[in-house]
Design brief:
InterPro entries: Ald_DH/histidinol_DH, Ald_DH_C, Ald_DH_CS_GLU, Ald_DH_N, Aldehyde_DH_dom, NAD(P)-bd_dom_sf, ODC_Mu_crystall, ODC_N. By secondary structure, the protein is of the alpha/beta class. It has 21 helices and 28 strands. The strands form nine sheets. It has a seven-stranded mixed β-sheet, with helices on both faces. Strands 15-14-13-16-17-27 form a six-stranded mixed β-sheet, with helices on both faces. The protein is globular.
């Protein structure tokens, strides 16, 4: 099945209006045969991404926007022999007719009644139409029958001749680019017949457009009118996700206690599912930050002198405390971020595991062996704490990213000051409340506020020995600039634009299933998300079909709407606008929306899980980090092109390779310029292995013993023992 291109012209049916009215009239011979049904079910076409309408089983009819893509046969082949919907093609109009009436009337069906019915259904005028590659198969009598009705000719042989002529013309063009074919006019309708306007209640938004409108333009308009058919599942129970008692204190945590801010200003914390304010936190100042740093400085000496065993035991105690409060932390995280409870619960579990791993690793550190590397001189290598670490954590994984930083920082013997995202601070402040009695005062400090104030002061503070940030590339640059004057160390885990390189021998079903999770986990607000598929051109169409099938099953909803909810809202209105802005620009550039493609009706900052197909090289959507529920699909022709295009992005956090060829998998993985490369999987993490990127994705490593190294310094002591 070929995909439509910008040379195709399509008809558009306003499904939203039909569903709202719960009635659908069919065009009949002279308007006399117009059965009415009481239900309309919208089902997306797997090849075009455009909704189809299914009527009752006795007269299963599809209203297709792709008037000539498979002649309504190939996409739903299981219905072809029993029912066989017909699409009638006239020189300027497309009419969808009841199958039985079509067989009786053949080419004479386009009549005055048909014209009126077409207008009532919102059929859009056409100038030219195109038959798809596999619209019919040689020797398929059923397809010939449909073609004879559709082409407006009585003789099936003549219809087949016209079809083959069109198909040969198409095959003559390189790489399947469409060629328009002018069909013979139906005797009952001249090209200049005026179609009556539909009643306002049934008139689709796109009914007025020129017959010369290209598919590129039409797809833009179609999507703008509501291509997305996903609905948000709302919680049926009115029980709130959190109560007032679940919230942490609305203060800063400094020197082992909660303290008021130096300013009276507060920041609203918004539930992105409902757009309502659920809490307020103090807007921190440079003065608040200075007080926290002073507390960390005062505590660092005693904490650094603890034995690894002692710090390990405290980290295990923190892990136990988190595990005991998993349900509370999960609900609080979901209330603040909107993420499904399954994702929040996984976050808490991974946070617990991070503390447990670091608790063990700090007791088993390794270094080069002591020995004489110069005559009569014994060399010893020590790992020492850095001192005070400034930590800036992001809004997408508030608790988990805090754990990724706090656990190795404490294990290595440092103290810290953490500035959580002002949008999602609740679980970080709650963490401080839960572990306050476990840690000495000043070891852990949390200051709320904006990055431009609190974050900037943290990065430039002369008593902070290292600044560690997980966030955007822009934030990373700002932190690095601020840290330059004091020459403090910088640890950056920034954005990603992970390519998923799929070769012809790959298990396409497994890849599509994996991307359903890896592309839309945490609503795509994930630095390592599988957001950019690079697929070999020979299997691209099949892969897109399978991927779209997976994505259309994704459940979008609120945290309490069910355990099967997979995708929640964007974290904020600003980010919602950013993601939808990328989608709108992609559509204006002619990128094909295979499914999804836009915002969902509020309240809440929900975006439909989206697949953008046929994305050209260099397109913004394939080059920049969208950070939402969006997967782009590009094609390549050979391995060298795949590697070149995969690497041709400024970010280098993660990638994956899909192939059954072991030699190829090793070779391609080695040539990809990314910090983590998976083979036949994506977004699988473990506390024992490092996480971090190359290029614009920053430097430094989270997780594993490499994080312990990052948050400590190497000291060489040499003893002259000559006598």
């Amino acid at each position: 099945m070929r995909f439509l291109d910008e040379h195709d012209v399509c008809a558009v049916f306003d499904l939203d209006t039909a569903i709202a009215s719960q009635r659908a009239a069919f065009v009949g011979n002279a308007g006399t045969s117009r059965p009415t049904v009481n239900a309309v079910v919208a089902v997306p076409d797997p090849h075009t991404g455009v909704p189809l309408a299914f009527m009752d089983g006795s007269a299963l009819t599809m209203l297709r926007t792709a008037a000539a893509s498979a002649i309504a046969v190939g996409s739903f082949e299981r219905h072809r022999c029993e029912i066989g919907p017909d699409i009638l093609l006239a020189s300027r109009h497309v009419v969808v007719d009841h199958e039985q009436t079509a067989r009786q009337n053949r080419g004479s069906i386009v009549s005055a009644g048909a014209q009126a019915g077409a207008a009532e259904l919102g059929i859009v005028e056409l100038g030219r139409v195109l038959i798809g590659d596999e619209a019919g198969r040689d020797g398929d009598d059923d397809t010939v029958t449909y073609l004879s009705a559709g082409l407006g000719v009585q003789d099936a042989g003549a219809a087949w001749s016209v079809y083959r002529q069109a198909r040969q013309a198409r095959q003559a063009e390189a790489r399947g680019v469409g060629r328009s074919v002018d069909w013979p006019a139906t005797p009952a309708m001249s090209p200049d017949v005026t179609v009556p306007r539909a009643p306002p209640s049934l008139r689709p938004a796109l009914i007025r457009h020129s017959p010369a409108t290209s598919l590129k333009e039409l797809l833009i308009m179609t999507t703008a009118a509501g291509l997305t058919t996903v609905t948000i599942r709302r919680a049926a129970d009115a029980t709130p996700l959190i109560t007032e008692a679940d919230l942490p204190p609305d203060r800063h945590f400094v020197d082992g206690t909660f303290v008021e801010g130096s300013a009276d200003r507060v920041i609203d914390v918004v539930d992105p599912c409902t757009e309502s304010v659920i809490a307020r936190i103090p807007e921190g100042t440079a003065e608040d930050l200075d007080r926290a740093v002073a507390a960390a400085v005062a505590a660092k000496g005693q904490w650094a002198r603890l034995l690894p065993k002692e710090r390990s035991e405290l980290l295990h105690a923190i892990a136990d405390r988190l595990a005991a409060n998993t349900e509370l932390l999960s609900r609080l995280e979901s209330a603040n971020t909107g993420k499904p409870l399954a994702v929040s619960t996984d976050d808490v579990g991974q946070a617990v595991d991070t503390f447990r791993f670091m608790a063990g690793a700090v007791r088993a550190t390794t270094s080069m062996a002591a020995g004489d590397y110069a005559e009569n001189h014994l060399s010893l290598i020590l790992r020492e704490p850095l001192g005070v670490i400034g930590v800036v954590t992001p809004w997408n994984y508030p608790l988990l990213m805090a754990a990724w930083k706090i656990a190795p920082i404490l294990a290595a013997g440092n103290t810290l000051v953490n500035k959580p995202s002002e949008q999602t601070p609740l679980t970080t402040v709650k963490f401080a409340e839960l572990v306050a009695d476990l840690l000495p005062p000043g070891v852990l400090n949390v200051v709320n506020g904006y990055g431009a104030v609190v974050g900037a002061r943290l990065a430039e503070h002369p008593d902070v020995h290292m600044i560690a940030l997980t966030g955007s590339v822009a934030s990373g640059r700002a932190v690095a600039r601020a840290a330059a004057d004091s020459l403090k160390r910088v640890h950056l885990e920034l954005g990603g634009k992970a390519p998923v390189v799929i070769f012809p021998d790959a298990d396409l079903a497994a890849a599509a299933s994996s991307l359903r999770v890896a592309g839309f986990w945490n609503s795509g607000q994930e630095c390592g998300a599988a957001c950019r598929a690079l697929v070999h051109e020979s299997v691209a169409a099949k892969f897109v079909e399978q991927l779209v099938g997976e994505v259309r099953e994704v459940v979008v909803g609120e945290p309490l709407a069910g355990e099967d909810v997979e995708v929640g809202p964007m974290v904020s209105k600003a980010h919602f606008d950013r993601v939808t802005g990328y989608l709108e620009r992609a559509k204006k550039e002619g990128v094909r929306v295979a499914t999804g493609g836009g915002a969902l009706d509020g309240p809440g900052y929900f975006v439909a899980p989206t697949v953008l197909a046929d994305v050209p090289e260099g397109a913004e959507a394939a080059h920049e980090e969208i950070f939402g529920p969006v997967i782009t699909v590009e094609t390549f022709t050979d391995e060298d092109e795949a590697v070149r295009r995969a690497n041709d992005v400024p970010l280098g956090l993660s990638a994956s390779v899909w192939t059954e060829n072991a030699r190829r998998s090793h070779d391609i993985a080695g040539r990809l310029d990314f910090g983590t490369v998976w083979v036949n999987s994506h977004l699988v993490l473990a506390s024992e292995v490092p996480w971090g990127g190359f290029k614009g994705s920053g430097y430094g490593r989270d997780l594993s013993i490499y994080a312990l190294d990052d948050y400590s310094r190497t000291k060489h002591i040499m003893h002259n023992h000559g006598r």
